[in-house]
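Re: your question from the hallway

Yes, I did run it. Sequences:
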Amino acid sequence: MSRSKTSWIAAAVLALAVVPVVLPGYLTSLATLMLIYALLAMSVDILAGYAGRTPLCHGAIFGTATYVVMYYVTSAGGNPWLAMPLGVLAALGVATVFAALAVRTSGVYFLLLTLALGMIVWGVCQRWTSVTGGENGLRGTARPAALADPQVFYYFVLAVGLACSYVMWRFVRSPFGLSLKGIRESESRMRSLGYDTTRHLFVGFLFSGLMAGISGVLYASFNSFVSPSTVALAQSVKGLLMVIVGGVGTLFGGVVGAAVIIVLENVVSSFTERWSMVLGALFVLTMIFAPEGVVGKFRSFLARRRKP
Amino acid sequence: MDRRSFVKSSTALGGLAALGSFSQVRAQGTGPIKIGLLTPLTGVVAAGGKEIAEGFGLYWDQVGKKIGNRAVEVIVEDDGSNPDIALQKARKLTEQTKVDFLVGDLLANTGLAVAEYAKGVGIPYFIPVIAADDLTQRKRIPNVIRVAGYTASQMPRPLADYAYKKMGLRKIVTISQDYTFGHEQCGGFAQVFTELGGTIVAQHWHPLNTQDFSPYIAQIQAATPDAVFAMETGADATRLIQQWSNFGLKGKIRLLGAQNATDQSVIRTLGAEAEGIISSAHFAEGNDSPATQKFVAEYQAAFKKLPSIYGFSHYSAAMWLAEAIKSINGNIEDRPKFLDAVRKTVLNGSPLGRPVRLDDYGNPVYDVFIRDVVKRPDGTFWNKPIETYPAVSQFWTYKPEEYMKQPSYSRTFQGIKKN
Amino acid sequence: MATLQLLNSFTLAALLFLVASGFTLIFGLMRIVNLAHGAMYLMGGYVAYAAATASGSFLAGVAAAVVAVALLGLVTQALLRFVKGNELRQVLLTLGLALILNDAALVIWGGDTFSVPTPPPLRGAVQVFGVLYPRYRLFVLAVGIAVLVLLWLLMNRTRLGALIRAGVDDAETVEAMGINIRLVFVATFMLGMALAAVAGALGGAFLSLYPTADSEILVYSLAVVIIGGRGSLGGAAVGSLAVALLSTFGQVWFPELAYFVIFGPMALLLAFRPHGLFGRAT
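Structure:
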């Protein structure tokens, strides 16, 4: 990796590390939320950016993990630490079902099918009142006592986020990750080269679901609350928008996108109720003027500057 | 690292820090009283949410936005009809804007989420519209008080009594939105009605935002009850009342409604379909009482519409809180003292025209009216009282400790006594 | 009671067909999944409500709705030209538009629930097949059937229809034959918008209009089009019937399962027959 890239990443990590000191109280919790969503966005990017399949179901995978954690600590009275791997496993389970059904479709059909699957999960969460609490959701302490302090929790989320980012970064650069990219470029060519594209996509989907699940578990710890809105379509749309604004296929664009959307949301809603309209406009403008996102645009800017 | 990236990242940090300076440090005791009002300004209950802000603001405008020598600042945040957003905004109001206390929310799930948060951080939270029974019963939170509010099951019980004794009804079908507010309202109704000797023939639960009620209407027709108790709010109420009329059932089977079903927020965009629906509530905008009519006139002048339960409840809550704050000379920083004052305040100037006080569990006791939807000379409709049930508490005629031994109302427990 | 529920299903199916037919034509011909289609329905409904209450005429309401939504359609098409060729970007752009339109409607009309006033001759109920049934719902059923017939005639007996069908199969070849495919696209898009507007006006009278109506009808339309197959009118008709039956009877027999009753079969169908019942693989 080039020297300037390393220094960029080091600067970013350093900036993130001093957040609780420089931006106390509410802003630390906002930054924590940003990190959680960044992880979700990056998980979406694995599929959308690297495998070339844009999903609208990751909110459901994310939220399933949240629900399982909340259910385990409230109705089952379990240990918050134990709840975490359970949540991730549940997310992986849901991702497996989704992947099995969706992996043979592509493009817009993939989008629509994942949308439908996400809606099924939402419907279940809304109606299976005895387990999910229905509209009221589930409330209880999902954060382990050791992480009760917001600053400690921030560092915990940062550590998990950095670890997952590293794993994802290695994944997309691995031969397997490169084969996914190949599928995005030309699925027929990959097949003619002998790759089992369906199996590759399936594994890629599972990996993406795993990351989304980890994000969902962290969200449970953050909020200590879950309701059907956590698995709703709007959540998947938000995650997708973060990837797009940051830059599809750039992986770390997810972090930038999450930061942009969350900061915007906070600032805009202080001045107006029209956040929904602003979000919509952002979607439209990004699609027209900057479909490659912030990081994508930045990279092409750098590439142009390097040319003699 | 090279200079350029260092400069870039510190500029970014600086930008974020500037955001942080949005929060002000408040002066002790003499600065403005900051009230955080959470309300759904967007989303499925946006109409009611807007009225919450209007009703609350109307009171403060009338008293010049101050109590004693302290100014009052209301900061409104949109909870989006969504508990995740409600929690985020509650956090923002408490930790960033540093409000003195929180008020509001409309949907039960948003209220419950914020109540849990308030429990954790200790900020006072007042809920004039959130009617989840257990917040003032089995799962009471000391700093969450139902100022000028009511529990879900409190209001339908007099209606059940009236239905059995005065209207002579014996077989009733209930139809309701399938969430806690609906379960508790129907439970309150069903328990009293069956204890008096009536029968609940069937209960229909439908998801929020059901567009097409025809499948339920068909089943109700087949069951031939004496009457139907409809627990509906918002768009569902509008649709049910309309479709009921379209199917020719108006006048054939009597329709009883929960207070929200015939609330102004529903009937002001309906016509004659709503006429004749009997409901029960502490507030009836058609009530002759001078205090009520004065309020209705003021509300109409300010907002060009008749007040709904959302506007009324928050106006009363603002009045209540103002009285409480006055009684402790504006010293709301002393939270235990403030909460205690709120609990002990008796509201004398309420638009209801009679004094209102809280019971020992933090919920008001009201005189409840049986109301009928009647046409006004100008062609609009409103709820007029036809009978009064005095001093109805959240526990009806049951002893509180005995009552709380039975489970909370839910889809599976409706308090139905088998006759 | 079964008669009543069947009538309920058919009348709901008629409305769904009106919305979904426009959606499927646009999807079929232009490969655009117009996620703003629900917002067009809602806008049409609100405009119809405003016009009908102001003028006292239901027809004026419908006409105003068609005009308003057609204008919105032109704006949408203009914006879509910026992302021509990239299907995914088009979909996401329409999603952004849906958010904007939904919020704009909230600003203009507020959050109260409105109903388009039913014209007096269509009020009340009639005896049909042994049950008392609302006249207005029967009217919607009649309109649905009429539109189905008219659209079929358009598709199978007119030049425009032939061009649309050819375009659904293979737009490039049609263009290569010298036909101005863009005009066909615009005409189809406008037709879709008109259908959505009429659906909004009609639906606004018995299902009412409120802030989340757009996403709800969109979700149903998606189900219809996915089951029926992209670009197929017959598919839209069959899909509408299927979704309406599942929804109506599902509500009665499996109230627990709500959405699952519709989306379960839809997801399975899409997984194993990605192009729906009548769609064609291209």
